[in-house]
Structure formats: structure tokens, C-alpha cells
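Human: Here is a favour to ask of a fellow structure person. Comparing notes only helps if you start from a blank page. I am asking you to supply a protein in sequence and C-alpha cell form. Write it directly below this note and I will take it from there.

Assistant:
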Amino acid sequence: MSLIANSAWRGGDPGVIFIDRINEAHPLPGTIEATNPCGEQPLLPYESCNLGSINLSRLVGKGEIAWDQLDELITLGVRFLDDVIDVNRFPLKQIEEVTFRNRKIGLGVMGFAEMLIEMNISYSSPDAIRVAEEVMSRLSKLGREESARLGAERGSFALFEQSKLKGWDAMRNSTVTTVAPTGTISIIAGTSSGIEPLFAISFVRHVLEGAKLLEVSPLFEQAARARGI
């Protein structure tokens, strides 16, 4: 495990998944054999899943999380991602058919590490675990409840009665949450990726055609300037 962790820290690979646990938790008939490239989204043949992430670092004010705002974003995010399914353009007819049948969406988070910094909480502390549990429990509970409301309004996904979710009165989406690494969209948002820590406060990013970009944590830069460094 030490070798795997060191390699992942240096270059991002290898990733590790537990396919038996994935299939135990998967709500639909069929066996999962593969995931998307980053590994966060297990998929059946020809499946797709629309992903979106809430930027947690934007929800902190005076060292506290704006819980009401997070709750609102969760419900809006579920509805938005479900709408994306309906307006998507699919490269293959099989993908379109399976996507509409299962209606998988994956709402997740990014900026977790920066959120903790703004709250003056160490990433490796028990308090960080407590915050993570509260954030993710809200995401899971409210996300699933909003999908149930959507199911009552617009109809459940086609395989609802054959799924592990059939105990609900209705359900629009067979999956609701996905915590992706957000390697690209976190750059666009200017925050830390997914739920990962800051691997360095300053580093050089190597991009296509040999270009190099200097990246400095804006929170570190802000703290350094405040101390006259």
C-alpha cells in the first residue's frame, strides 16, 4: 500500500477499486465490469452518467459553512443534471437508449480541501472527518429525496421496479451522487480537486505541446501577503 500511495502521489496512478463492493451496492440488474476513465463511475455496457460538482470552497463565510445554501445547491444540482439527460446529444443510439432507461446522474463536490483551510481545520484531523460526514450525508440524503420528488413529477426511470430502489414511491434516477476527482473542472473553478488534499502549495503544471504553467494556491498566497511575505 505504501508503494501504491507513493506512486499515486507522484503521478496519479494507479487507482484502486473494489469491484465486488461496487456490484453489491449497484442498484440495477446486471454486472459491472468497468468504470469510466477516472474510476468514480461504474457503468453497465453503453451506459453514460452526467456529472456535476458543487464548489464547497465558495460556501464558507466567517469560518462557517452556509448549510442552507448547500442544501439549495444539492436540490438544484439534481434537477439540472436530470435535465442534461434530456437535452444531450449521444454519439451512439445504444448509449441514448441505455441512458434514458437508467437515467444515472452523479452530483458530487470539489474544493473540500480549500473549504477546510478557510475553516481553519486540518485535513488530517477528526474535525475534517466530521465535516466530511455532514457534507456527504446531506448530499446523499437530499439528493435522493429530490430525485424521488422528480420521479413523482416526471416519472421514475424505466428499470425502477427491477431495481434495489423499488421500496421508494418513485425515483427519477438510478444513481444520484458521484464524487469525481474533478481534475479539469476544478482548474476552471480555481479550487482544489474533489475531496483530495493540496498535494503542493506551489507546482509546475505540464500541459500539451510542452507548455509549463506555474500554479500557486491562492489561499497560501493570500496568507503569505497578509504576513508580509
The CA atoms of residues 156 and 207 lie 43 Å apart. The chain has two domains: 48-198, 200-229.
